[in-house]
Amino acid sequence: MTSITLSVPEISCDHCKNSIEGAVGELAGVDNVEVIVEARTVDVSFDSPTDVDAVVAAIESQGYEVAAS
Ligand SMILES: [Cu+2]
Asked: Distance, CA 3 to ligand 1 centroid (Å)?
């Protein structure tokens, strides 16, 4: 299991939270995803076949940009 925290500066409300949690949560292998609105972060725990690139792509598919870490 891999756990990562991604910074997504455009997160601003529960709509953002629901969009991102929905998209990332659909990926096979994702164990847990939680958007912290106040911190503008996305915590994700996942196993194969999902990888960091797939998580980033899912977030970007909702119209958000992931900040370089
Ligand atoms: Cu929002």
From this structure: 24
| pLDDT tens digits along 13-45 | 999 999 999 999 999 999 999 999 999 999 999
Taking the whole predicted model, whether its pTM rises above 0.90 is answered as: yes
For residue 46, give the nearest of 34, 36, 38 by alpha carbon.
34
d(C-alpha 62, C-alpha 21), whole Å: 10
What one-character-per-residue DSSP string does 16-28 give?
A: HHHHHHHHHHTST
Q: Quick check: 7 and 40 in contact, CB under 8 A?
A: yes
Round to whole Å and give the CA distance between 64 and 34.
15
- What does the block give as tokens for 10? 């455009």
Class of domain 2-61 as given by CATH:
alpha beta
69 CA distance to ligand 1 middle (Å): 22
